[in-house]
Amino acid sequence: MYASSDVCLVPLRRGFTAESVPCKVFTITAAARPLIASVDKDSDTHRFVQEAQCGLWVEPENPKALAEAILALYSDRELRERLGRNGREYVETHYTRQAIARQYAELLEEVVESRIV
């Protein structure tokens, strides 16, 4: 479903994404689709979208900003494709099984080293 979309939407009310990223964000980016994140600024989801450069951010519960973001992506195919590619590359780099296993191994090594000293 996500892969057949031109643009995907992640609309959340204020206060719902302070310390989490909805799993559909990963599905959308893995499908190489751009997203519009209507989430709290400086939330984990906002930071993910900014770091991955995979979509546009709009203030939650702001229909005018949401409409402007939709129109911006609707009218710019190149931007849609670039954001989609960016998201796909980001999840391939940071969220594959191998990447997650490597992060866990590094974390465990840090914990072990901190206990030895």
Characterise the protein shown here.
With 117 residues, the protein is mainly alpha-helical. It has one domain (2-88): Rossmann fold, CATH 3.40.50. The chain has helices spanning 23-30, 44-52, 63-74, 77-94, 97-116; strands spanning 8-11, 35-38, 55-58. The chain is globular. The relative contact order is 0.15.
- Share of helix among residues? 55-70%
How far from one another are the termini? Answer: 51 Å
Q: If helices are DSSP runs of H or I spanning 4 or more residues, what is the number of helices?
A: 5
Largest sheet: 3 strands, parallel
Low-confidence stretches: none
At CATH level 2, the architecture is: 3-Layer(aba) Sandwich
Q: Could you say which overall geometry the principal axes of the C-alpha atoms support?
A: globular
- The quaternary organization reads as single chain
Pattern of helices and strands? EHEHEHHH
The total tally of domains equals 1
Structural class: mainly alpha
**Number of E-type strands:** 3
Question: By CATH's scheme, which homologous superfamily applies?
Answer: Glycogen Phosphorylase B
Question: What is the residue-mean pLDDT, rounded to a whole number?
Answer: 93
What Rg do the Cα atoms give?
A: 16 Å
